[in-house]
Amino acid sequence: MEIKNTFQETSKSDWLEKLAIDLPQIDIAKLGYKPDEKYGWSAFHHADDRKGKVDAPIFNYSDWLIGYTFDSSNIGTLLDSLNNGVNAPIFKCSLDEIRKIKGVNYDFIQSFFEVNNTVSEQEIENIEHDFDGSVLINYSTFMDSGVKSKTLKVKIEIPKTNDENKVETLKNVLSKVNNLFQKGIQSNQIFIDYELTKNHYLDIACLRALKLCIAKIQQENSLPIEDVFWNATITSENESDYHNSIYNTSKAISAICGGVHRIDIIPNPTIATDKIDSQKLFIEIQQLLQLESKWKSNDAMAGSYFIENLTDQIADLLIK
């Protein structure tokens, strides 16, 4: 006999009746957490909560990419840093600084060259030809420019915000994504940089909700349902690498569960005793997660009524 046929299906109302009998002194409705009056989660979730809801789109990825951002202040340590295992660097420096690394042969899976000012179509073509990478340009800079390149990537940043401000921040992101689609930008040209917070479950739900809402925008505009490029930025905050290693591992796991393509763990220069050692430690966190856990950057939380219910609530608020 199959296990699924062994037990009779139970509705959410049946469970709540049993809980009321077993825990007569406790108000189940007050055991949850509401970061905002508009959404939150309870202590009990059931499949009934998702009736009539649409599943978040699942895009099949292989291992996520190990990122690190190099600026002009640490370009001199570039070669030593790359040996630690970075396979998707962002070079955030001037074109003159970028040209210093021309000819360096590393087998990157993907590299990005972030420019802070408006660049011409010819400059984009030259950078991509010389360095075999993608030009990354800030959303505001792109919108102010007349660039129409089909190869560059437009970066939308999602800064770390309080839980109560999260929905408004995500609405702003969706507005920017829609503006880019209206300008003819393709999904694979959008680079969304999500800075993770201390609320791991909420971050996972927000990433999933954004995927769902972007798919809805694509559908409404008769565009292919394709994923954008998702980057997770993790900024070290604690006073020691020991605490950061534990803390950042938890954040990295939430990024993986949210389905990102790239993770960038950034040592805090004001507290790191040795920036290179800190960077090496945080890259090794990702390598261990990849090698030991065998996780893939997919929708790892599908089937979790808790996460899916929270995703639905956030997506409903974003779509309104």
Protein described:
The protein is α/β, with parallel strands linked by helices and 320 residues long. The protein has a domain at 137-319: TIM Barrel (Alpha-Beta Barrel). It contains ten helices and ten strands. Strands 3-4-5-6-7-8-9-10 form an eight-stranded parallel beta barrel, surrounded by four helices. Strands 1-2 form a two-stranded antiparallel ribbon. The chain is globular. 34% of the residues are buried.
Descriptors for this entry?
320 residues, alpha/beta, TIM Barrel, two-stranded antiparallel ribbon, 10 helices
Structure at a glance:
By secondary structure, this protein is of the alpha/beta class.
SSE-based structural type: alpha/beta
**How would you describe the oligomerization state of the chains in this entry?**
single chain
Order of strands across the main sheet:
3-4-5-6-7-8-9-10
Whole-number radius of gyration?
A: 22 Å
DSSP helical segment count: 10
Q: Work out the number of β strands.
A: 10
* Uncertain runs: none
Mean pLDDT across the residues is 81
Query: What global shape is seen?
Result: globular
Q: Kindly state the percentage of residues in helix.
A: 25-40%
The CATH topology of the domain at 137-319: TIM Barrel
CATH fourth-tier homologous superfamily of the domain at 137-319: Methylmalonyl-CoA mutase
- Based on the coordinates given, report the CATH architecture of the domain at 137-319: Alpha-Beta Barrel
Order of helices and strands: HEEEHEHEHEHEHEHEHEHH
CATH classification class of the domain at 137-319: Alpha Beta
Q: What is the terminal separation in angstroms?
A: 46 Å
